[in-house]
Amino acid sequence: MLPNISSNGRSFRGAGAYYLHDKAEPDGPKPTTSERVAWTATRNLAQEDPSQALDEMWHTAEDGMRLRREAGQRSGTRCEAPVKTISLAWAPHQSPTRAQMEATADHYLRYMGWHEHQALYVAHNDTAHPHLHIILNKVHPETGLTLNDWKDWERSQRWGLLIEREQGAVLCLARVEKYEQAFDLQTNGLPYPYAKLAQEQDRAFASAEQFMAAQEPAEKDLLAQRHQEERKAFLASGKAAFRAARQQAYQDVRAEFKPQWRAHFRAKNEGEQNITELAEDTAQAVQALTRSGDYDGAQHRLALLDDYRETTRQGFAAQGKALRGEQLQTTRTRQDEACQALIAERRETFQDLKDRQKEQRHEVRDLLAAREAGTPHDANRLVELLAVELPLGANDNRQPELAALAKEVPDARAAPDSEPAFNPFSRAADELFGRHGYDVSAERAPNKDITDVIAAPISAVIEFGVRAMDSLFAPPSPLEQAIAKAWSVRAKEDKAEREEEARAEHLRQTFIKHGLTAVRAAQEQHDKARALDDEERGRERTRHRDR
User: Fold this and answer.
1) Taking the model in full, what pTM does it have?
2) Which of 45, 125, 159, 471 could form a disulfide with 38 if both were Cys (CB 3.0 to 4.6 A apart)?
């Protein structure tokens, strides 16, 4: 999707002469044919015929100053170049229907905040790629204000990138590199009042997200890398979720008010038609009165026409202004409700996430305590939790090693009651057999002859020496690293809990101190005001008595 914006023009008929007809040959006359025009459509116009629609847009631009005064706006400078032309081009392999092209153009105007302005769509079929031209009136038909086209080129390219992302096929990679960084900073082309409202709601939502994120530094040392990444991913998803909820509320309210706006524009067009008919009748009456010499009667009829025109247009302007205010207020209420609901939902979800991670940490601590005490415990579960808490960065191969080790570790709870379960994680067993994963309890003593009896001490000494050398020079296993890390986490957790309790107590005492100070100051202010009031009443009584 490639949007292109031409320079602003002064003549609607000039734009229509170019876009509504075929291209002229170099140094040739302007053609009157229109074979390249596939179809046309209008927006916010009473006329469907392209030529009449362009004339209506010209009249609106000419009446811009009057529309401003009737709408209660401060009169500014007249828009000297009210014609804005935009082209929307699809890729050659794309074949959008007319309905899809119109919907895309509507979406573009809504994104740019120009959807309330008068527009004429002209689709051409003279190129390999489908494209659509938009002739837009920069003067608003209700308020007479000129549209905001600040950085319209950059905003249009961001819209094109948004459309390609929604379609799942980004065709212009250079545009991605240029606009990727600031893509999330846009307000989705909302009109100015709604864009300003969105900024206020963004600050409220960001404050709620920061409240949750502020709890993380106190627990940062207690979390494994996986837990930290999980929390960061959750907090990062908040902006997109809030934008979607806010935009949905805006679209819902806009759809609800569409019938009212349709009825308003229909009534306004009928009012303009009545003004036109009354003006024609008045012109005939004035002409007749002038011929008969009744100049006062002619002036009276003209004054009646002016009063009727002024009253009618002011009434529709006030009605449109009230309808816009009601729609804005409804949108604010709906978006605030959606914002608060999303904040409550995310706060609950974030708390569930923290509780689950806290349970995992406590489970690791209990399993390590049981292992240290030599009591039966679920060794497979310990390895699983430690694997979850191990950071996966510089040494990703530890994960499969732990998985393989977990398969070799027997579950202590499955050992029969008659025989004590062999604990492969005890310090002595880990020193001799831990790195090889031997299950001593599962081995049966073979039949030995005299040669085995003689050779056994020698082989045992050699094997012990080899394993002792391995224990001295071999690097620690992944499980040993995980256990050491878990003990370090447990120590930091205890320290952090104590620090958190001390911090909470300090905050409570500070709050009580400042609260009492504020209460005393308010009480003193109240007493002072009451004393001044008593003095004033006393002086008033004295004045009455003296009279």
Assistant:
1) 0.40
2) 125
